[in-house]
Design goal:
Blueprint: E1 6-11, H1 20-28, E2 37-41, H2 44-52, E3 57-60
Antiparallel strand pairs: 1-2, 1-3
């Protein structure tokens, strides 16, 4: 079984003036504060979440 591809996602902008559903999406990605980085699997659902709040994130493959 091949290992799943990982993506590094970093929160680079604050969540103070964002929509509630965008804040919930960032939390769903596992990000807690500015400059926090997590590694997530590259799945279509994760890609959709990243596309939704991409203006808040920095993504490294």
């Amino acid at each position: 079984m091949a290992t799943a591809k990982k993506i590094k996602v970093t929160l680079v902008k604050g969540l103070t003036a964002t929509r509630k559903d965008h804040r919930e999406t960032v939390r769903g990605l596992g990000l807690k504060r500015m400059n926090h980085t997590v590694e997530v699997e590259d799945t279509p659902s994760i890609r959709g979440m990243i596309n939704k709040v991409g203006y808040l994130l920095k993504v490294a493959e």
